[in-house]
Amino acid sequence: MTQSATPGPAVPPSHRPIDFAAWLPSRRALLWVLGAFALGLVLFLLVWRGGRNDFYRAGPAAPTAASPQYAPLPAPIASGAGEASDVAMAAPARGQDDEEKPRLVETAPPPPPSVASAPAPRPIAPVATSQPQPISTPAPKYPARALRNGEQGTVLVSAEVGLDGVPSSVEVARSSGSRLLDRAAVDAVRHWRFRPAMADGRPTTGRVQVPINFRN
After folding, report:
1. Strand partners, 195
2. 214, 138 contact by CB (below 8 A)
3. Which residues contact 110 (CB under 8 A, 6 or more apart)?
4. H/E element holding 214?
5. Cβ burial 192-206 (10 Å sphere, 16+ → b, else e)
6. Which of 198, 211, 136 is nearest to 167 (CA)?
7. Cα distance between residue 157 and residue 194, in whole Å
8. CA–CA separation, 212 and 141 (whole Å)
9. How many Cβ atoms are within 10 Å of 176's Cβ, its own excluded?
10. Phi, psi angle pair for 98, to nearest 5°
């Protein structure tokens, strides 16, 4: 006959002991922590001592605005028959002198109208007592084309003569009917020389008209 094994009592599992020394910081870490704490404490003391005089101190109270002064009220009037008479006496009498009198308001006279300044008179040009007189009159050149075509006629040339007797402006006053002859007459008068016009014994500018004849 087989005997069954009787189970023995259960053996509790073994527990590992906790090593608290492993959780403690090293000596170097403790020194760093203590040094940082001491440095922070020193900085706090320096800041606190330097800022003691900068704390806000309440100054004397600012003077408040002066309280308005009120005139004392009149004493109450006793009730009775004399109440109406007292009030009438207390009311100031208003006579004719208190009425508003008309006042004369003086207004400034309007400014005088501005007078527009008259334009300065233009200098009057001296009136010429004589016309320019030609003193050098080179003959005009007869255009060969006009000569071949048998063109002829008289050109009236108008010239503006300066103080020196030199023509400053030359133009055709009356045409001969031929453009070639008109051009030749104008070119010829431009080379003329004149005795200038006179005014009050002095030379002045003047205009003269001279005829130029072209004949075959």
Report:
1. 133
2. no
3. none
4. strand 206-214
5. bebebbbbeeebbbb
6. 136
7. 14
8. 11
9. 22
10. -80, -10
Which SS3 state, helix, strand or coil, does residue 197 take? strand
Residue whose entry in the numeric block shows the structure tokens 């100054």 = 59
- The tokens describing 104, both together, are 């004369």
Beta strands, E only, 104-205 = 133-136, 153-161, 167-174, 193-195, 197-199, 202-204
Three-state secondary structure along 146-163? HHHCCCCEEEEEEEEECC
* Contact (CB, 8 A) for 80 and 86: no
Q: From first to last of its 216 residues, what are the pLDDT tens digits of the chain?
A: 445 555 555 555 555 666 656 666 677 888 888 888 888 888 888 887 876 655 445 555 555 545 556 566 555 555 554 444 454 454 455 555 555 666 666 677 777 666 555 566 665 655 666 889 999 999 999 999 999 999 999 999 999 999 999 999 999 999 999 999 999 999 999 999 999 999 888 999 999 999 999 987
Full-model pTM: 0.42
Looking at the DSSP bridge assignments, the partners of residue 204 are: 197
